[in-house]
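Sequence design from tokenized structure. All designs in this work follow the same two-part layout: the structure record, then the generated sequence. An example of the structure record is given first.
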């Protein structure tokens, strides 16, 4: 009986020590990998913007053989200032969300909202600080300013608010690296009662 207990004790000690060393080596290897591969903020930001679907609403579209695609000359420049929206049934808009053909204007019970210009032009986020950008995403505040109105649907800021500070910094760095597009997006239109 004593030999069985001794054998079980030795096997347990060996198993513990093997696992402890393996965990330590893995952790050291992971740290080395992080230290060897610095993150390029602009590339990371572009990846996150693409993954987050920002082009779906913030980039005007052009029609191609494959359907509507983001206009490469106006990426993330928001709803085109010169685009006139067609008339719509106001009663329907009280219970549905209507989207413009370019997917940059949205009408529903909140009124009509327009996708913002996210380029570094003064008509976009050119004068914004990173702090304002983070506040806008974290708190849903227009231009990241206290006392301002909330961001309107369909902007899913509540979901983006869960991003890490590093991810928001990367997105901001990417947006600031874009070509500037002068496009003053229209102000929202209040709901029709």
């Amino acid at each position: 009986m004593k030999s069985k207990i001794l054998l079980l004790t030795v096997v347990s000690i060996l198993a513990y020590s093997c696992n402890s060393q393996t965990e330590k080596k893995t952790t050291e290897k992971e740290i080395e990998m992080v230290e060897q591969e610095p993150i390029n903020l602009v590339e990371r930001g572009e990846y996150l913007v693409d993954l987050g679907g920002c082009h779906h609403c913030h980039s005007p579209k052009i029609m191609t053989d494959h359907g509507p695609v983001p206009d490469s000359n106006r990426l993330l420049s928001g709803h085109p200032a010169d685009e006139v929206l067609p008339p719509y049934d106001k009663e329907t808009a009280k219970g549905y969300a209507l989207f413009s053909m370019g997917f940059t204007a949205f009408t529903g019970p909140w009124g009509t909202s327009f996708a913002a210009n996210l380029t570094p032009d003064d008509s976009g986020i050119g004068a914004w600080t990173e702090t304002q950008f983070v506040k806008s995403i974290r708190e849903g505040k227009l231009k990241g300013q206290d006392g301002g109105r909330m961001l309107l649907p369909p902007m899913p800021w509540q979901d983006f608010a869960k991003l890490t500070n590093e991810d928001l910094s990367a997105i901001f760095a990417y947006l600031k690296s874009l070509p500037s597009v002068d496009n003053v997006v229209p102000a929202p239109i209040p709901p029709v009662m």
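DSSP finds seven helices and five strands in the chain. We note this feature because it recurs in several other targets discussed in the main text.
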